[in-house]
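ERR on first pass: missing label on line 2. Operator R.T. fixed the label and resubmitted. Corrected input:
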Amino acid sequence: MTVAPLKGMACLALATVALMGPMPMAIAAQPQPEPGPEILQKMQDAARNLDYAGVYTYQQGNIVLSTRVVHIVDGTGERERISLLDGRPREYIRHNETTQCLLPDDRVVLVERRESERFPAVLFDDGERLPAHYDLQLADTPDRVAGRECRDLTLVPRDAQRFGFRICADRDTGLPLRAQTLGPDGVLAQIVFNTLEVGKGVASEALAPTWNTSEWKVVEIPIKEVDLAAEGWRIPLPPGYEPLTQVARQMKGGREVKHLVASDGLSTLSVFIEAYSGPEGQPHDLGLVRKGVLSVYRKRIGDHWLTVLGEVPADTVRDLAHRTEYVPLAVR
Amino acid sequence: MQATNEQEQQASLEASISAWIDAEADIRPEDLDSPYGRQVWDTYHLIGDVLRSEELAIKPSDFLYARISRAIDEEPPIVAPRVQPIRRYARAGLSGVAAAAAVAAVAWVAMPYFAGSDPAPEAPVMASSEAENLYDYVAAHHDITGVGPLRQASFRVGEGR
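pass 2 clean. output:
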């Protein structure tokens, strides 16, 4: 009832504006458009399509780890070389979805074939679902990271099932220069470029691995897809989270563990299921471990261990673990 | 073993159906669609109907109450915990498969996530061996999500043979 007259007035107002000609005052007073998922998509596209090279640092609690990245797009697709600068030397040579992990102390090349993106890529899908679960706020003033001007986009969670994020995207290219995970008390973890070069200056020679691996042993990591729901697992993911992938993987001692990864586009959590093999008398519920940004909850369901973990609030992993059920009877 | 499993699964399904009827959880129709599921669903609704309606309930005689109280008195106290039998056969059966697949078995180098003495105050502290086992999961999580630091794994080729 109230809509119709308002609509009429709006039309009238528009007509008046049209008659009176341009009104610069009105245009200046227009609020900044709400940042939408397209701003995140621009970051993702930049991380995938640009040539860049630099060093970024991951920091969480007292952990500081630096990594050199070289990313080049040529006629064959994406090529990337990632070198760990701290701890034992490791290099990852990626060509599209094939990644070689070079382990010089073992003289082994591990080959993995699946999509694997990491920083500066920050999204796990097109980001369309993010505004439903985060309030997007673009900073009014620019910041500076790795000598480049960037602007912070803050994603404030709308519920308690995820942490917040703040991503500073390069003014010129949209490339994320800094990504922070925000808890109630501030920054929980961050990953930030220290040096960065974008564009033509990035030479393809920089993609060559440090070591000559022609004599090294090559091991392909088998990936087996699984369907936990079809096996009778009822895993009620928190609102907004969708399964990304479900695989069976080998863990220490050769035991098989089923692994589901879920994400809301930014936040991720993992659910691991394996046969119970512990000593008798072990408690059914090992409970919660929290460390910095990470929460882990482990409990036993019948003949299985269930492990839920992720960079999410502790209650999220605990609730998911408590609500997960095994009902293969219903499947039959 | 099989019977224990089935009992647990039935209990789990019954708990789910109870929660759905009480509108405490979202109904999963695919889980209900089994003879057992439908039977439980009907029974629980009948229980609910009887609880809400005096007319549907049978008025039991005082004699029934007396019999029930006596039966409860005679019930032995339940103290023995249920013991989970060790599944030796399963382990023996697996070893062949494990040996074949162990070519790519993984030994993760510990990430310093749970090291140090800085557990969150509200979190119970796990036994250290248990916490060590979590490295694997954390590394596997980061491996797929690409969130956080790159794994510093080492792969012992042929481990587990």
